[in-house]
Amino acid sequence: MTTTRTAAAATARAAVAARTEALFRQAGALREGHFLLKSGRHSDRYLEKFLVLQYPAITSELCAMLAGFGRDADGRPTVDLVAGPTTGGIILAFETARQLGVRGIFAEEVADPAGGRTRREFRRGFTIGAGERILLVDDILTTGSSLVAMLPPIEAAGGGIVRTVVLVDRSGGQAAVESTGGQSYAVEALWRLELPTWEAGEATCPRCADGTPLHAPGSSGTTGP
Asked: CATH says 19-212 is which class?
């Protein structure tokens, strides 16, 4: 019986991954070229999440799959709210929360006035009650930095992260994010995609070496070719 359940779960995960990939391809969101990622690394392929999120029907379907991580076997919500980081996480948190019938909030990137590293804060009156169960969602996982920055304000408020889920894991095995306090949270994904990344420079990046023009897509700069 256990073997049967394991096989069924694996089949379901594969179906979710295949459908997620199909939706990204349908939206033309998997691009090829030479891209500067937010992490500072380079890649020859890039997932432009906003080409997907511009379509409400596709976004709703993806969020329905995310919402499944916040329900029990009988379909009842197991979380009190959904949270995500700006910018893509705003849309995902809202629609996933709507489908679960709970609140959806987001944390913004805030500059340190002393010139230190940026951090994330829940602003605009958003609150997290002590003991509230949270489904943490994001779009693309590369280094996990956006999710890591979400952890301090959630932990400081006393919230409990039930699950952490992204649309696409392209980290190559990140698997978990860890807070400064040492708490580790497993990261699950609708679709795990192996896309190589390189440090900038002709000695490390093949696209730098062959002179392919570099583009900083999305909010990082230009929209690319």
From this structure: alpha beta
